[in-house]
Every structure is written in C-alpha cells, then in structure tokens.
Amino acid sequence: MVLVHILMGVLFAGWLCFFLYALYRFRRKSNPVANYKGATGHTSTYLEIGVAVVEAVLLIGFSIPLWAKRVAEFPAESEAVVVRVVGEQFAWNIHYPGPDGIFGKTDNTLIDLQTNPLGIDRSDPDAKDDITTVNQLHLPVGKPAIVKLSSKDVIHSFNLTEFRVKQDAVPGLVIPLWFEPTISTDDMRKRLGDDEFVYEIACAQLCGLGHYSMRGYVTIDTPEGFQAWLDEEGAKLSDEDSAWN
After folding, report:
1. pLDDT of residue 142
2. For residue 170, what pLDDT is reported?
C-alpha cells in the first residue's frame, strides 16, 4: 500500500509539472492564432508507449502473481478456522462446524428467522454441535480464517475494512475467501486508546431499504479466548438440547 501511494504521488507530481508546462508553453500571448498542425514530433508517442510498458510490467509481472499467491492459494482447512457466512436482508448469519469440524445439513423448510435462520437440521449427527450466531463473528488472532460466503436472497457484499476484505455474496454460489487476523480486538483498543472500538462487518452492496442497518461485528480473541467462547456457545447448545428432551 505504501509503495502504491508513493507511485501515485510521483505520477501526480509528474502530471502536475506537465500541466504547468502546457499552460505556460501554449499560453494565449505566445499562441494568438490556433495551430492546426499540432505536434509533429514523436516524443508523446514514445512516452505513451513507455507508460504502457511500465503498466504492463506492474500488472503482469507484479499484480497478477501477487494476487494469485495471496488470494488464490488457500491455507489447509486443518490449519484454519472455517466458517460459513450467509447474508440476508438485513443480517449476517455465521455458522461454525463445532468440535467435529463438519458442517451439518441444512434444509430450507426448517428456516425460522428467529430461531433457525440457516435451517440447520439438528437431527443430523454432524449438526448437533454446530454453532450459529447473527452479526457476531468470532475468530482467533494469528490463525487463518476461511470464510465460505453465500446469500439467501439478493447480492450482498461482505466487507471487512480493517482486514482489506471485500467480496460479493451472490445467491446460488458459495464463494470462499480467506484472511488472517493479526491484531486482537483488545490490542487494537489499546493502540487506538478507544475502549469501545470494534471491527465491523459492512454490506458494501445496496441490497434494499434496510441496507444501512446490515451491520455486523468481528471479535478477534486470543486462541484461549476463542476456545473459551466456543466452549460457552457449545454449552448453550447442550442446555437447549436438554430442555427439548
């Protein structure tokens, strides 16, 4: 990011100098009559070719390989936290696979916006330990997170500004993305001197009248804090299961 800003600063200064030169070189006092022949040299052509070559090198030699390495090469799921994130008007549904690491079955006929927004089939053995939250994504610091992104209704855009993550959630598609949190929520609060700071999930795609309210939160815990949170959510599931039985 710093190198990109330096490059843009150089380009800005260069074009500004050219602009000032053009204002002086072609001022009315020196050019009272229009010159319909225009420039006859090839300097501008060589400059345009040079700019095109530099842009091609930056794109093909740097941008595409770096993008492929950073975005397309996913970490192994066994070394990451894998979650499902499902957008809907106007909330983010988060689905963890539980201790067994396997996502349970879902069924659209079981969807209940209040109690089961993802339609998880709790009769499936793999689903009994699955954890769900709404607008609350918890992740451990220093460990890759793989997000399997989808949408229940219209196109949304999963935007985590501080993590430089932005990906459209498209109905009918499951789109994977990954990133690695490096600063916990507590550490960021100390850095900023703001005890109220929270990482946010924003929807960056206009998705309806309630688009403005589609706001979630990301809590980056220590590994121990994350495990404690998982254990707490798992205990709630056990209590609910006991109550039903």
Report:
1. 94
2. 95
* pLDDT tens track for 197-233: 999 999 999 999 999 999 999 999 999 999 999 999 9
Burial class (CB in 10 A: 0-12, 13-18, 19+), 37: exposed
How does the average pLDDT of the chain come out, rounded?
90
- Provide φ and ψ at 219, rounded to 5°: -110, 120
Distance of CA 68 to the CA centre of its chain: 16
The four Cα atoms 161, 164, 165, 167 give a dihedral, to 10 degrees, of: 90
Reduced to 3 states, what is the DSSP secondary structure of residue 217? strand
Q: For residue 96, count CB atoms less than 10 angstroms from its CB and return exposed for 0-12, middle for 13-18, buried for 19 or more.
A: buried
> How much is the CA Rg of the chain, to the nearest whole Å?
26
pLDDT of residue 240: 64
Full DSSP string of 104-122: PPB-GGG-BTTTBTT-B-T
pLDDT at 70: 77
- Tokens representing 232? 């707490």
* Both structure tokens of 117: 């927004």
What are the backbone dihedrals phi and psi of residue 151, each rounded to the nearest 5 degrees, phi first? -140, 145
Tens digit of each residue's pLDDT (9 = 90 or more) over 155-187: 999 999 999 999 999 999 999 999 999 999 999
DSSP 151-192: ESSS-EEEEEGGGTEEEEE-TT--EEEEE---S-HHHHHHHH
Q: Which residue has the tokens 């740097």?
A: 62
The burial of 218, by beta-carbon neighbours within 10 Å (0-12 exposed, 13-18 middle, 19 or more buried), is given as buried
Kindly report, residue by residue over 115-124, the tens digit of the pLDDT. Answer: 899 999 989 9
